[in-house]
Amino acid sequence: RPGLARCAGCGGRIQDPFLLRVSPDLEWHVACLKCAECGQPLDETCTCFLRDGKAYCKRDYSRLFAVKCAQCRAAFSSSDLVMRAREHVYHLECFRCAACGRQLLPGDQFCLRERDLLCRADHGPPLDGSAARGARSP
Fold this sequence. Notes:
Blueprint: E1 20-23, E2 26-28, E3 48-51, E4 54-57, H1 58-65, E5 82-85, E6 88-91, E7 110-113, E8 116-119, H2 120-123
Antiparallel strand pairs: 1-2, 3-4, 5-6, 7-8
């Protein structure tokens, strides 16, 4: 309703005949809704993303906040299949042993040392010592 709404961008009353509503409770002057990073005007023709009360264009939101592959550092698309190791996420093709380059598949045993994935052959016996029970080793 013009005159009653407050702009989420500048805080002023919206007297204009038109306003932009980004979410159910945030309204903006048409001139105030811009990407917080690049300044691109955001209107009904482009996608807008909100984070911490700031609006972003799709490109900047993805660059700043999207989950990125731990190996290649590229963002994921919505159709990408991923592999996870602790808090790290990888493209399927990036989920490879750092020592031999072999692609690791679901069910393969591996070790994560810092940011490096290592296949079973390259990381040795399990860290819990289960393989060392039968043989005495230092």
